TrEMBL record:
<feature type="domain" description="TLDc">
    <location>
        <begin position="263"/>
        <end position="405"/>
    </location>
</feature>
<dbReference type="InterPro" id="IPR011705">
    <property type="entry name" value="BACK"/>
</dbReference>
<dbReference type="InterPro" id="IPR011333">
    <property type="entry name" value="SKP1/BTB/POZ_sf"/>
</dbReference>
<feature type="domain" description="BTB">
    <location>
        <begin position="27"/>
        <end position="100"/>
    </location>
</feature>
<dbReference type="GO" id="GO:0005737">
    <property type="term" value="C:cytoplasm"/>
</dbReference>
<dbReference type="InterPro" id="IPR006571">
    <property type="entry name" value="TLDc_dom"/>
</dbReference>
<dbReference type="InterPro" id="IPR000210">
    <property type="entry name" value="BTB/POZ_dom"/>
</dbReference>
<protein>
    <recommendedName>
        <fullName>BTB domain-containing protein</fullName>
    </recommendedName>
</protein>
<dbReference type="Pfam" id="PF07534">
    <property type="entry name" value="TLD"/>
</dbReference>
<dbReference type="InterPro" id="IPR052407">
    <property type="entry name" value="BTB_POZ_domain_cont_9"/>
</dbReference>
<dbReference type="Pfam" id="PF00651">
    <property type="entry name" value="BTB"/>
</dbReference>
């Protein structure tokens, strides 16, 4: 009962502070926001504002009311009235509502929070919607430090070539006299762009790009990259046996929502661990572990059924597959990787040889304590049978039995 009353009291206090926004009786500060023709003067309370944004607290030090009780005044021309009302509601009540805001509005909110030094709001918005910020029409107005924080992230859920192209777009916006066609740039133009992006270039995962993306989107800008970096990139595409440079960033994390059932695999690190295990076995390419992975859902037991017949109908003819199996009644996932194509049958005994297959087990969705086992009997790595599948050696076998889920 005491805990409930405490919660009620906090809610009522928050609501009372928000209600003060419509009560001018005790206001002692006016804030002019926006630029002509969209300007609005908002009345507020100095004591409340001093408790939250560091920017306003510093500004109010020099704007204290005099003995004649004159109202203090602050100008914030870069923040629109609509955006500041959202910020003000957050300052008074701790509520940040984004339900009715489009990407452009959210970006404006991020910029306003950055200007007012509301770091917790900046962090929240960058964590919640990093990809949407890039897709906003106004993203080029981001301060450099905000752009850097975004492209540092592992969870952008964007192709690396898109990240690179957005960074280039931002760089061009900072230098409006530059042409969008690098073929027309002078030596000085390349130096200007290199200087503009000097803090961003090291954060791009260039080695994750496909050869096509490298040729079309990076090569035209090679003069803004360090010579050794460009040479290493070129080697990675022309000679897979060349050695990667040290301290190369790994690809960004993979989105699994809608592709891998999050009721089965709840921890993205498990997917990352398996992906990197696949790459280690690709001995033909020293740069394989730096490339992006694209997952496609072939079969889902809860949707398609659990029988080998359905498995072969949906998976035969497909190679480089990962199977995830949830053990019924346990918080454990098992599965395996098959680099070969799946078939219903294969020759005399149905077995196929490979050194690259492996099986795995993860308990409690913990990637760190998972077990990954490479194949021992490479001649019997995968078994093809119309009444069974998937079938990994003698370790993981799925027969026509619906009880195995």
């Amino acid at each position: 009962m005491i805990s409930f009353c405490h919660i009620q009291m906090v809610v009522l206090q928050t609501q009372n502070y928000i209600e003060l926004l419509t009560d001018d009786e005790y206001c002692d500060i006016t804030i002019e926001v926006g630029e002509e023709p969209n300007v609005k003067i908002i009345r507020a309370h100095m004591n409340i504002l001093c408790c939250r944004p560091l920017y306003l607290r510093k500004a109010l030090v020099t704007k204290k009311t005099s003995k004649d009780n004159l109202i203090a005044h602050i100008n914030l021309p870069k923040i629109s009235p609509k955006t500041f009302q959202i910020i003000l509601k957050y300052i008074y009540g701790g509520i940040l509502s984004l339900n009715d805001q489009d990407n452009s509005d959210i970006l404006k909110l991020l910029l306003a929070a950055d200007e007012l030094l509301l770091q917790e709001v900046v962090d929240y918005l960058q964590n919640k919607i990093p990809r949407e910020i890039f897709k906003s029409l106004d993203f080029t107005s981001l301060p450099e430090k905000s752009l850097i924080q975004l492209i540092k992230r592992d969870d952008l859920q964007m192709k690396e070539v898109e990240v690179w192209e957005y960074v280039l777009k931002w760089g061009l916006a900072q230098n409006p006299t530059l042409s969008s066609d690098p073929d027309t740039w002078s030596d000085d133009d390349f130096k200007i762009m290199e200087n503009t992006l000097r803090h961003c270039l090291s954060l791009i995962r260039f080695f994750s790009l496909s050869s096509k993306d490298f040729l079309q989107s990076v090569r035209p800008y090679k003069r803004i990259l360090k010579h050794q970096l460009y040479e290493d990139l070129l080697k990675s595409h022309l000679d897979p046996d060349s050695k990667p440079t040290d301290n190369i960033s790994l690809p960004r994390n993979i989105k699994i929502n809608g592709i891998i059932d999050t009721k089965i695999v709840k921890n993205l690190s498990i997917i990352t661990t398996i992906s990197r295990q696949v790459d280690k076995l690709d001995i033909r390419n020293n740069f394989a572990h730096l490339k992006e992975h694209k997952f496609q859902l072939l079969i889902k037991g809860s949707r398609d059924g659990y029988t080998p017949k359905v498995f072969h109908e949906l998976c035969d003819g497909t190679s480089h597959t990962v199977t995830f199996i949830k053990i019924k009644g346990k918080d454990e996932i098992i599965g395996g990787y098959n680099p070969l194509i799946w078939k219903s049958s294969a020759g005399f005994n149905g077995y196929k040889k490979t050194k690259e297959s492996f099986i795995f087990s993860f308990k409690n969705n913990n990637a760190k304590d998972g077990i990954i086992s490479n194949i021992e009997d490479t001649d019997r790595a995968i078994w093809y049978n119309p009444s069974a599948g998937p079938f990994f050696g003698q370790d993981i076998i799925v027969y026509a039995d619906n009880s195995l889920q």
